[in-house]
Amino acid sequence: VEITHVCVLGGSGFIGRHLCQQLTAQGYSVTVPTRNRERAKSLILLPTVDVVTANVHDPVDLAEVLRPADAVINLIGVLHDGSGPGSFRAAHVELARKVIAECRRRHCRLVHMSALNADPRGPSEYLRTKAEAEKLVADSGLDATILRPSVVFGREDRFLNLFARLLRMLPVLPLGSPGARFQPVYVEDVAAAFVFSLRDPQTIGRSYDLCGPTVYTLQELVEYVGRITGHPRPVLGLSDRLSLLQAAAMELLPIKVITRDNYYSMKVDSVCKGAFPFGIKPTPLEAVAPRWLARSGPRARYPRLRDHAGR
Ligand SMILES: NC(=O)c1ccc[n+]([C@@H]2O[C@H](COP(=O)([O-])OP(=O)(O)OC[C@H]3O[C@@H](n4cnc5c(N)ncnc54)[C@H](OP(=O)(O)O)[C@@H]3O)[C@@H](O)[C@H]2O)c1
Questions:
Q1: Which among 73, 69, 68 is positioned nearest to 9, based on CA atoms?
Q2: Does 14 contact ligand 1 (Cβ within 6 A)?
Q3: Which 8-state DSSP code applies to residue 154?
Q4: Please, what is the average pLDDT of the chain?
Q5: What is the mean pLDDT of residues 213-225?
Q6: What is the rounded distance in angstroms from the CA atom of residue 102 to the CA atom of residue 96?
Q7: pLDDT tens for residues 13-67?
Q8: Which atom number of ligand 1 is nearest to the Cα of residue 149?
Q9: CA of 78 relative to ligand 1 center, distance in Å
Q10: How many angstroms from the chain centroid is the CA of residue 23?
Q11: How many of the other CB atoms lie within 10 Å of CB of 184?
């Protein structure tokens, strides 16, 4: 069956917005449910995207938003365990179960967002619940594909931008888990991988790890952000013990930046064994990040201008 209408759960988020843009550019009709239409503002401007307010945890609402779709992309996930529908269990496992049930009824194609290192015996609840959802999807009997990115970067990410903000505010940055290794992947490449999976029936029944071209330690990434933003502060790598203590202390803040669960996730290197799939050549961080990171201060103009000039 040809796919023409895609429902993107979590389409209002960081990765979802880029994915919806690519889907509409390729002629798909898209439905995006959201809890809050205000947050999905930028999507409303896209020509073939229908943004609807819905509670996707309610099977009646879910059936309604999936009704016009021949395919579902499920991007819903949380980085910090919340309460009720915001818990790891509700957002990752129970919701995946409901999406699968509805998809079975309607025979739709499913592309499911997981995370690199999702593992039932993984070190964090984030990775364990992501693995539980993967198993539900794999055992569902549906035409399904699973994608597992390392940390994703892009203009509105919460990764490099977080460090950019901290480096601006602090004279010295005490960094937890400085030796944790990542292979950051560009949001446009992740979005392209979803569109490719949707198109290519060969991806059915398979799962793919998604990484960028380069492996960095967290400390290297933070130092890079410092150089590009013009705030090259000393980065003080904390010991393992202090990293856990820092995460535990930060967990008490009203705004969640890092939790102990995040610290445990970083116990496994977020790196890929193979190359990026689908013939896509992943974008190097250094080729695009200066576009949005180097924006304040007089010196910041240079990398940005160089970037524009393609040098
Ligand atoms: N960003 C990364 O580095 C990264 C790396 C690996 C995997 N992932 C996975 O990729 C997915 C998307 O990540 P993202 O960075 O784009 O996240 P995001 O910006 O936080 O977007 C998540 C979207 O899901 C919806 N959502 C969140 N919690 C929900 C809940 N409890 N119930 C219903 N809807 C909820 C939100 O929609 P509304 O607020 O509009 O309702 C939001 O637009 C997640 O599953 C994440 O685990 C991300």
A1: 73
A2: yes
A3: S
A4: 94
A5: 98
A6: 10
A7: 999 999 999 999 999 999 999 999 988 888 988 889 999 999 999 999 999 999 9
A8: 6
A9: 6
A10: 17
A11: 27
